Amino acid sequence: MSPDEYCQQKAAQSGSSFYYSFLFLTPDRRRAITALYAFCREVDDTVDECTDVMIARTKLVWWRKEVGAMMAGEPTHPVTKALQPHMAVYALDSEHLLAIIDGMEMDLDQNRYLDFIGLQKYCWHVASVVGILSAKIFGATNPKTLEYAEKLGLAFQLTNIIRDVGEDARKGRIYLPVNELQQFNVTAAEILNARHSENFEKLMQFQATRAQKLYDEAFALLPKEDRRAQRPGLIMAAIYRAVLNEVERDGFHVLNQRISLTPIRKLWLAWITYIRG
């Protein structure tokens, strides 16, 4: 199996909405974004699938060294072998890749955030940075496009947090800011024990309203001259926002279920967004 085939398999197996946005890219850009996505999946799985914190930390140290080896032209992992040829072509940098690893390590260090400022820092590492790198691969000619991508990444991650409240709670994690739980009189115990309430719905509506506002702010930042090139990101946004809308319509019953879209609906949203440009 070639490095590109390894990354393609990693992306396809995930079932992520990102996969659908890759379908409309040119072959070179598709290989680049697929390799970047596979990199993110590899380091994320290091944390999510490893029950021993020390082993997870050791693996992340290895990944940091592997990024250095890749930049020196000596990658050893299929993902870095696939990603290395695209680094210079799309002006990707090792600092952003290391920032993603830092974000994954944050999950080993804490499972609560006191306020939105702290949560936003985490989201920057695990999502906004990915947005910036992705926008470069798609084709960004205006600096404002990277600002759009950074904010859109934050909107994506907040959507994930809203959708996955129950799933994260079963792992002992609550990403909703502590001061906002207090603001709406929702205790951590209620979330950890999957107790849905009117206060919980109000808390989640507050989170969803913020995420919706971020989508609008991100779109407003996207320069007209880069809109066509950034269609893959807009496809992802259409899918993620559709998920957020479904969660809202369902009354935020996310403690015992994970709301998702069918593959055919994702493909339809991808096609419609692509056609509309």
Automatic annotation (TrEMBL):
Q: Which Gene3D superfamilies match?
A: Farnesyl Diphosphate Synthase
> Pfam families attached here?
SQS_PSY
Annotated source species: Herminiimonas glaciei
Lineage, uppermost ranks? Bacteria, Pseudomonadati, Pseudomonadota, Betaproteobacteria, Burkholderiales
InterPro entries per record:
Isoprenoid_synthase_dom_sf, SQ_synth_HpnD-like, Squ/phyt_synthse, Squalene/phytoene_synthase_CS, Trans_IPPS_bact-type, Trans_IPPS_HH
Single GO MF descriptor: transferase activity
Protein known as: Presqualene diphosphate synthase HpnD
Q: Which UniProt keywords apply?
A: Transferase
Q: Which domain of life is it from?
A: Bacteria
Q: What is its EC number?
A: 2.5.1.103
